[in-house]
Amino acid sequence: MFRFAKAALNLTGQAARQVRHNSTAQMNFNKKYGNILMVSGASFCVAVWSYVLTQTGITWNLSPVGKVMPKEWREAEEE
């Protein structure tokens, strides 16, 4: 347990040092590639769902209105 706690403190210390020294690697990456990744991810999602909705042949039972018929009421049998 001591080794785990020591490693955890070491990681938090490294993170604090990076914040203190203004690490801008993530900011530059997001500024450079952020919009491209968002657009490509959204287009991939739309493409996959378009394929699923149109080409797979899945029957989508969206509404049961008019399709479900109630059974006839059965009176309780008297003894």
Describe the overall structure:
This protein has two helices and no strands. It has helices spanning 2-20, 25-55. The longest helix has 31 residues, at 25-55. It is elongated and about 85 Å long.
Reconstruct the topology from this structure.
Layout: H1 2-20, H2 25-55
The residue fraction in helices comes out at: 55-70%
From the N-terminal CA to the C-terminal CA, the straight-line distance is 73 Å
Poorly predicted runs: none
How many helical stretches? 2
Q: Tell me which oligomeric state these chains represent.
A: single chain
- Judged by helices, strands and strand pairing, the structural class is mainly alpha
Largest sheet: none
Family: Belongs to the cytochrome c oxidase VIIb family.
Pathway: Energy metabolism; oxidative phosphorylation
GO cellular component, one term: mitochondrial inner membrane
Subcellular location: Mitochondrion inner membrane
